[in-house]
């Protein structure tokens, strides 16, 4: 079986987040804008339990596809606002609505092509 492309992985992870009730899921192609990743997958979450469930589903996908998580990081002290999962060519951002509105990643990376 052929290895999936980063784009395929990003789109499949986005679908997992949508299926898990992540809201306003977006995939941004940022490959031409930096040297450290190709795609951002961004989703709005509603609670600590919600992000933990979605993060587990993403980690299960990563394991099932023989990929490696480079970093998981909580961008706030309590960990409920912004959680990042770095899979190398794909970086997943699970953000509360407040954090998403404050950081506006889609605007910050506006030159990236929105795939979903």
Structural summary, described in words:
This protein is an alpha+beta fold and about 120 residues long. The chain has helices at about 5-20, 50-65, 95-105, 105-110, and strands at about 25-30, 40-45, 70-75, 80-85, 90-95, 115. A six-stranded mixed β-sheet has the order 3-4-5-2-1-6. The radius of gyration is 13 Å and the shape is globular. The chain has a single domain, classed as 2-Layer Sandwich (Beta Polymerase, domain 2). It has four helices and six strands. The two termini are about 25 Å apart. The mean pLDDT is about 90.
Low-confidence stretches: none
CATH topology: Beta Polymerase, domain 2
Number of continuous helical runs: 4
Strand content: 25-35%
**What number of structural domains do the residues give?**
1
String of helices and strands: HEEHEEEHHE
What is the strand arrangement across the widest sheet?
3-4-5-2-1-6
Give me the count of strands: 6
Shape: globular
- CATH architecture, by name, is 2-Layer Sandwich
**Relevant CATH superfamily:** Beta Polymerase, domain 2
């Amino acid at each position: 079986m052929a290895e999936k492309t980063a784009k395929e992985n990003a789109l499949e992870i986005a679908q997992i987040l949508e299926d898990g009730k992540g809201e306003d899921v977006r995939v941004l192609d940022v490959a031409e804008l930096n040297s450290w990743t190709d795609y951002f997958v961004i989703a709005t979450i509603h609670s600590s339990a919600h992000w933990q469930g979605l993060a587990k589903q993403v980690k299960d996908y990563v394991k099932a596809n023989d990929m490696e998580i480079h970093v998981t990081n909580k961008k706030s002290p309590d960990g409920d606002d912004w959680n990042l999962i770095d899979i190398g060519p794909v970086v997943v951002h699970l953000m509360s609505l407040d954090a998403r509105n404050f950081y506006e990643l889609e605007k910050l990376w506006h030159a990236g092509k929105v795939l979903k």
